[in-house]
Write a structure and sequence with these properties.
Beta-carbonic Anhydrase, Chain A, binds zinc ion, 6-stranded mixed β-sheet, about 220 residues, alpha/beta
Length: about 220
Amino acid sequence: MDRFARLLMGYEQFRGSLSEDDRSLFQELATGQSPSTLYITCSDSRIDPSLFTKAKPGELFVVRNAGNIVPCCDNATSKADLGTIQFAVEVLKVEHVVVCGHSNCGAVIAMSNPESVRSFPYLEEWIKLSKDGLDLNPNDSVCVNVRKNVLHQVGRLKKLDFVKSRIEDGTLRLHAWVFSIEDASIETYSVDTEQWVSLINLNEKGEEPTPARRQQAN
Ligand SMILES: [Zn+2]
């Protein structure tokens, strides 16, 4: 079957399988939204935050771009994402912001080797803006650079006045995550230990998750 036809069939199945609870949820959401979390992640097709957090519609406000970038304040060409972030923080009053990178991120690979996108002017410009102030070593592993990039973007968030004030009054928490595609696991940055740690700890049998470790990256 054609791959796009598969998507259309998926929609048909979705419509056919809506439960009463689903319909009630969508009716409720039709009048407004109150998501708890702004989720900033890469546009990569392999990343599906609603899948791995089991979030329902209305729970995640998502900003996606190549490389999960938080644009610089003084960057006139990136106001779209900044405006979206501001809407989530100041209007929707989200309580958490997650910046989630991922393994084998093509945007981060390009950031560490800008020559590779020289023939794609828009992409080249985006990569240039994205890595502004970020020192990536092309000899480091992609994993290392992905983590550096996530922390850099969290750092940019903290510099936004409307984010800073919410952090200072204790109503907003920032989280730095990296999703590993290979095993569908997430690591989060612990400011206490300055290390990346598993988002959840499984017991010895790997069965019962303990409550998620809610690490603050601020
Ligand atoms: Zn990516």
